[in-house]
Write a structure and sequence with these properties.
The chain is α+β, with helices and mostly antiparallel strands. The chain contains 9 helices and 17 strands.
């Protein structure tokens, strides 16, 4: 109960006791003693040493007090409703738990993170989540499907192996089985980058695979034998985007010499074990010519 409310209630009890006593004649000692106890309780916060007894308020206690002030005392100063709502939202954000950990062992686990993000963890997967410096941070080992709560002011960053995914509000599936990270976007737009891959934006229907530095796609296949689960998908992107990904899994280098070929728009997908098959299809897709040299370099150019 609020202290002022408790004091008012106690004062009312004391007044009622003494008033009832006065109507019946003299106040008996027991009634007066009880009234004195109620009066002491009502004014205990003014007693010496009261603040020392309570100790220093924690951050959470201060936030609760601030939220109470916003909803009551702030009205006396006629704060605009929008500003009041903003203050209340800020207090609510700081009241969230600092960190949580979830571990799905033998079966899938459906969880809701403190920021209202819904997450379905696959078996043998785990995630750590914390709020720090105005950001929502998560670390995933295994696989999860996420529906991120929209919050433009507090971006959601999730690390999976060496890859980091940044979102504001969207739905996607992310999996990390050392040394491979697989990202599939179900709705919205997601940015992913890692030391071995430049930042790339993925839209709904697109997917990509990242391999930890120093590893090859063959290591990915060893970690996830189901090759169809390691597909990279594109929706209406330049062919140069596809070739850049192919080059990450190709043992040599790939160069596009024609701007027309580089800008050819394609919608397609391929598994990380199908690089050679896709390269052989490029001449048909873009009406291009492929040449190879003895050093393993592959060149895409216009047909002569």
């Amino acid at each position: 109960m609020h202290r002022d409310t408790a004091q008012a209630a106690a004062d009312h009890v004391v007044s009622a006791m003494l008033t009832d006593a006065d109507t019946t004649g003299a106040v008996d000692p027991d009634t007066r003693a009880m009234a004195r106890i109620w009066d002491d309780l009502a004014h205990v916060r003014h007693a010496a040493g009261y603040d020392d007894l309570l100790g220093t308020p924690t951050l959470r206690e201060r936030a609760i007090a601030f939220g109470r002030w916003v909803s009551t005392d702030a009205k006396r100063f006629a704060l605009p409703s929008l500003a009041t709502a903003a203050f209340a939202s800020a207090a609510a954000f700081f009241l969230m738990p600092q960190s949580v950990h979830y571990d799905a062992r033998d079966s899938a686990l459906q969880v809701t993170l403190p920021d209202r993000t819904a997450m379905l963890l696959s078996p043998n997967s785990k995630v750590d989540f914390e709020e720090k410096d105005g950001k929502r941070l998560a670390t995933l080992v295994g696989e999860a499907r996420l529906s991120i709560a929209h919050d433009k002011e507090h971006p959601f960053l999730i690390r999976a192996g060496e890859a980091q995914v940044r979102v504001v509000g969207t739905r996607f599936t992310l999996a990390y089985r050392r040394p491979c990270t697989k990202l599939s976007v179900l709705s919205g737009t997601v940015a992913i980058h890692s030391p071995s891959m430049p930042t790339r934006l993925l839209n709904a229907g697109e997917a990509t695979v990242n391999v930890d530095a120093g590893q090859s796609y063959r290591a990915c296949l060893a970690a996830a034998p189901r090759q169809d689960g390691l597909r990279i998908s594109y929706v209406d992107v330049p062919l140069s985007t596809v070739v850049a990904d192919l080059a990450r899994f190709y043992p040599g280098t790939i160069e596009i010499k024609s701007a027309r070929i580089a800008n050819e728009r394609v919608t397609m997908s391929f598994g990380v074990g199908e690089v050679e098959e896709i390269i052989k299809l490029i001449p048909t897709i873009a009406n291009a010519r492929i040449s190879r040299d003895g050093a393993g370099k592959l060149t895409l150019d216009e047909k002569s």
